[in-house]
Write a structure and sequence with these properties.
Elements lengths: L1 E6 L2 E6 L10 E10 L2 H9 L9 E6 L2 E5 L2 E2 L5 H4 L11 E2 L11 E5 L3 E3 L12 H14 L7 E4 L3 H12 L4 E4 L3 H9 L9 E6 L4 H10 E9 L11 H7 L2 E4 L5 E2 L2 E2 H11 L2 H6 E6 L3 H9 L7 E5 L1
Parallel strand pairs: 10-11, 10-12, 12-13, 13-14, 17-18
Antiparallel strand pairs: 1-2, 3-4, 3-8, 3-18, 4-5, 5-9, 6-7, 15-16
Length: 311
Amino acid sequence: MRAVRIEDNQARVVDVPAPDGPDDDHVVVDVATSSICGTDLGFVTLGFGGFTLGHEFAGLVDGVPHAVEPLMPCGSCGQCAAGHRQRCVGDHANLGIFVDGGLADQARVRRSALVPLPPGLDVSDACLVEPTAVAWHGAVRAETQPGQRVVVVGGGSIGLLAVAALRHLGAEVDLESRHPHQRHAGERLGAGSPSGSYDIVIDAAGSESGLARGAELATPGARIVLLGVYHGLLPAPGAVTLVKELSWVGAMAYGDHHGRREVDEAAELLARDPEIADTVITHRFGLDEAAEAFRTAADRAAGAIKVVLQP
């Protein structure tokens, strides 16, 4: 079967063996759609290889559409038992991250990873369930209260999905973004333009300049929720943090929220508001066009937000 892997610092479509068949704990998903994440682009730059990319995907199991939660927690540690699978301290992994993922014709996943699609969410858009769950978790971690001012810094897919999640939770949200097409997308999802200071800042930029801007926009005593990914030290502005007494809050992936999986809540959000997928998905390619899809996804200035591959 076809799969997207990294060879010579490029995403290439290669032939790989089909996954093992289903058993009591696993199913085989016929992938219908898989989207490219910034993590995938980073892997290409670093030249990591030996596994199939893709942790944002959906497809059919015995003809029934599902999205996939790619987390592979141990399921038995205290964090897993409390519903915080993203904090697993046991033996854990993640599909598409050093383990074969969903940028392929088929993927073998745990039965417990399946996310049934609610009416109104087409499988061709359901690759957004995973990144929407990331944004939803960040919105939940923000703990917004009525009357608080909220701004999202970063107009990529996670930032825009955070706007959608916060709006659904009842918050008025502004968006600080770099590119005109990102601002336009934010407006479609109900975001305003930044002005003044904010009680809640969502960092979806994942950059030193983004953190500095977020701290600048923060009012004294504000919470800054980290949705951006930082592999080294966190480049937080120290003096501003101390003077304003800012609180920095981590938000990693997704778990349970009030006893429900956040991936299920994300699927429901997408089903209720089709405008989200219409706004965030800007490009679609066939699986054989993976190289061009990755080039497009890496060029944010050219108008790409979320790039999708469909086998």
